[in-house]
Design goal:
This protein is of the alpha/beta class. The protein has one domain: Metallo-beta-lactamase, Chain A (4-Layer Sandwich). The chain is built from seven helices and 17 strands. A hairpin with a 2-residue loop joins β13 and β14. α6 runs parallel beside α7. The chain is globular and about 45 Å long. The termini are close together.
């Protein structure tokens, strides 16, 4: 297992540029996987500078239908002629977020043009429930939530009847990879709750230990009480490594680092990790 951060909100690596988004290049079981693609075509520049050959990628997996995870896919498909793009069937909702209770004027959903979508149409594989790529690589499909789950941020979209309805983020999914040392769970934003994402990932390989949780945790807008509760529960899981990225928020990252010490790794664009980093 080896994975490289092509896109992340921050960087301290010369020659690699940060943007609001996430993209991770993964090598596992003789397969090459692109998990998310950042907000723009910047993924190509960073991959080149990191000596990552995107043309060799076997599979692309999209965590959910927001621009900061999907924007680089059209550029990726121009240089990669073979990789299917796994994306949830509900991901094409034109979602809108809220700022202080007021709905944003611009969508935070997928921004592909009609021409780009047409060009990639035969590459897209729609998911819903769990999907097995290989014996050791799974896509979870929709991350389930309990009735009492309260998201940290609201989203809405216009349905086919033109009505504004809540986006339940049912298009959010995780990538889970089993290695001899345990399973690696990759979550893009964890809008449906990072603890739910963790449990969903674990359910793909019941009884296996978790080697690492690599996740945007969407705690930047959480209350202090909720943030501390989530940090406490993650700490109680006894995970080998926790890597909070992207939308986790600096306060939650600091809380996790203070609580977990070396078990919490703060990754940035340009960073590369392998099994020996555990």
């Amino acid at each position: 297992m080896k994975f490289s951060f092509l896109i992340e909100n921050k960087t301290d690596n010369p020659g690699v540029v940060a943007e609001h988004g996430l993209s991770i290049y993964i090598e596992a079981h003789d397969k090459r996987i692109l998990f998310d693609a950042g907000a723009t075509s910047l993924i190509l520049q960073n991959a080149k500078n990191m000596k990552v050959d995107l043309a060799s990628v076997d599979y692309a997996v999209i965590s959910h239908g927001h621009y900061d995870h999907t924007g680089g896919i059209p550029a990726f498909c121009e240089i990669n002629a073979k990789a299917p793009v796994y994306i949830h069937r509900n991901a094409f909702r034109k979602s809108y977020g809220y700022e202080k209770g007021v709905m944003d004027k611009e969508t935070c959903g997928i921004l592909w043009s009609d021409e780009e979508l047409d060009a990639m149409e035969d590459r897209i594989v729609f998911t819903n429930g769990p999907m097995e790529i290989t014996d050791d690589i799974f896509i979870t499909g929709t991350v389930p939530v309990g009735e009492d789950f309260q998201p940290t941020e609201r989203f809405s979209y216009y349905n086919e009847e033109g009505e504004l309805v809540e986006d339940d983020l049912s298009h959010e999914q995780c990538l889970v990879i089993r290695e001899p040392e345990g399973i690696y769970i990759f979550s893009g934003c964890s809008h449906r709750g990072v603890l739910n994402a963790l449990e969903c990932g674990k359910s793909m390989f019941p009884g296996e230990r978790v080697a690492a949780l690599i996740a945007g945790m969407h705690l930047y807008s959480a209350t202090e009480e909720d943030r501390k509760r989530v940090v406490d529960e993650i700490a109680g899981e006894g995970l080998d490594k926790v890597m909070p990225v992207h939308c986790t928020g600096i306060n939650a990252i600091c809380d996790l680092k203070a609580r977990l010490g070396d078990k919490c790794v703060v990754a940035t664009a340009g960073d590369v990790f392998d099994g020996s980093d555990r």
